[in-house]
UniProtKB/TrEMBL annotation:
The lineage of its organism: Eukaryota, Viridiplantae, Streptophyta, Embryophyta, Tracheophyta. The keyword Transmembrane helix applies. It comes from the Eukaryota. It comes from Vitis vinifera. Residues 13-24 have a biased composition (Low complexity). This is Acid phosphatase 1. Keywords: Membrane, Transmembrane, Transmembrane helix. Residues 1-24 are annotated as: Disordered. Signal peptide: none annotated. The chain crosses the membrane at residues 36-66. PANTHER family: ACID PHOSPHATASE, ACID PHOSPHATASE-LIKE PROTEIN. It holds the Pfam family Acid_phosphat_B.
Amino acid sequence: MSAYAHQMEREYSTQSLSSSRGGSDMGSHYVVESGIYMTSFAATIFIGALTTIGVLLITLLIALVVMLQSCQIERSGAVDSSKSSDYYSYCKIFTLHAEINSLEVNEFPSVCKDFAIQYIKEGQYAKDFKFTMWLAEKYFSTVTPLGDGLDALLLDIDDFHSSNPLYNNLYRFDQNGCNECIEETKDLKHKLILRFCMKLQAGGWSLILLSRKPEKQRNATIEHLTTAGYRNWSSLIMRSDDEMQMDTHEYFSRQRGVIQKEGFRITAVISGHMDALTGPSLGKRIFKLPNPMYYKFDDHIESANLLK
């Protein structure tokens, strides 16, 4: 090949190489302008960042859901608390007037009977009853009868009679599974009163029993009393047909007047109802036995488990 041919070949090769390089540069610019190019390391970092952001977003979403649920629970609790507080206030006023007016158990709203059951279930009723009986025993330990059989204790027996509607109603309205504790409390009440009465009788005191029940139930009442262990009472006073229409406050006041006219000296009256503890001729002391239906709201605070 001639020298001229060799020179032309070298020039052509140089131009071809330059064209090739120029084409490559144009290709790189095209990729950059039309998309994103990155190495595998950069891609790994990018995917990791996206994953981290996703995890953070999911965590934030879960936190928001938990906060919303917590708010709903708190709002629900506030509503329940408000509702329970309304019941508390209602029963507090209702039982106060029920005790003053000696309302029957069947006149109590169910929700207030739930409070009575709770009073028994928590053991507070038994404690209050024991303390009341201790006060009565302490008082009688400081006085002495004259010995003529005329110093008397008046006892309202309807508080512990087996047919007392209080317990029957409590059993029916008990939603707390407390039938056993109601029975235990009733037995405790009988034992404490019986022991107290036997002790006083042995000390020379006369025991006069009063009841709101009609005279026609006398035999059944006597049978119950003797079965329970009561003996040698001075008298058992029950209501005649005419007295059945009489207000119980008036009935008890009248009977105390009759007892005094017969020569008895009334030393004390014991009852769990206000109708037997108000009016004239009450003697030197009155002892109010705690009554579950007249729940002492000022002394016992409602708990969160109340209507469970």
